[in-house]
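Deviations from the work plan: none for this task. Representative record:
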Amino acid sequence: MDISKIQSMVEDDGIVFISYGGFLTQSLISSMTEALEHEATLNGLGLGASNNIFTIFIELTQNMMNYSKSIKESCSDIVPGGLIVVSKSLDGNTYYVHSRNIISIEDKIKIEPKLQEIETLDGDQLKKRYRELRRSGANTHGKGGGIGFYEIAKKCNKIDYEFTKINESRYFFYLKTTINLNKKGE
Amino acid sequence: MENLIIEETKYTPLIKMDTNGTIELVGKSYPENTFEFYVPMMEWVKEYFETSAADVTTVNMEITYFNQVVLNYFLIFLIYLKRTMIKRS
């Protein structure tokens, strides 16, 4: 784990209210969503905003769970696991969902072009592209990382990502989404 | 043909399929294995319309959250219902 990165994300973003590192299971994910619901009620987030955060959180954590599984099956040299952090700015107007996990080079090859494409699209183009993919049935392999990233992009204001090489076949995949409550959340 | 009832969990909806013609899905849906979860429902619906459908079937879906994988299955389900409706009308 890159401790400096964790520290900096905490310092940059203000208040962290969910943070988990380790092996992800379905019941852990659903317990953490209860914490998200609690946060939404406590801060009076609208249905739109809380749904956006909820969607991003679940798509990301279920992705991580699936990538962890595929690594566990194919290779035992790296302990599968992930880091998920949900935080907000001090004024409470911006939420962030961060994830960081280890993926195989095969998964990187699948994910990276999608994220690169998403970066070039504006809101309307993104909606159009999402509908195309949905219709064509592509990316519907039933595991994570398919159409999910397009859905995430629709629900947030900004996606930042980074791949850091570990060795020939493994990468750290770091993803940060930014959700502004005023502009898009409500 | 028997009714199908699958109890609600934190991440899967209540599924209630009654041969009297009411089909109900209520809750959240982001299962760990979506395919396995929705197989019994799809099999029930197919058998129902092939063998023992009531004159009127009402489908009520109150899903407060579903993930992108589940959306695929809901679309398959709704397209199946639409095709069946056209066939029977």
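The interface with chain A takes residues 10-11, 30-32, 34-35, 65, 67-69, 71-72 of chain B (CB under 8 Å).
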